[in-house]
Amino acid sequence: MKAIVHVDKEWGIGKSNDLMFSIPADMKFFRETTTGNVVVMGSNTLKSFPGGKPLKNRVNIVLFPGGEEREDCKIVQSLEELFAEIKKYDSDKVFVVGGAMMYKTLLPYCSEVLVTKVNAIGGADAYFQNLDEDENYKLTYVSEDVETNGYIINFTTYTNLNVKGF
User: Which domains does the chain have, with CATH numbers?
Assistant: First the structure.
């Protein structure tokens, strides 16, 4: 399993249950990376999508205790049920996509974290763990600077040196 996220200079990931930046290059990377695969999220992330609808052309698994079953995505009630569902898929095709609590809970189980770093401060109210300060993670890839929509971004990959099993 992997995680995919964009962060600002302070490792902020969101503001008022929304993205802080609209960066087409990052959205394209996210779409190309996750399309045809499995995305795992919490209920607030699902609610933040247009119309509260799941992402197209992906298997959407949503941890939503007390949430009602839906035809358009798989609702799971507990972490145990989530892990059982994830095990049905190739782990390299499973991506944690938010929000903050899902990242915090599932990060130890992710072999890689794909982080788009935005060289700006977005006024976040939700944050991601600073992987540069975590001895369990090693920065293994950094792209060249990409200037897009008024921002400088870098696509990076962190490898988890101590992946937990479930």
Answer: 2-160 (3.40.430.10)
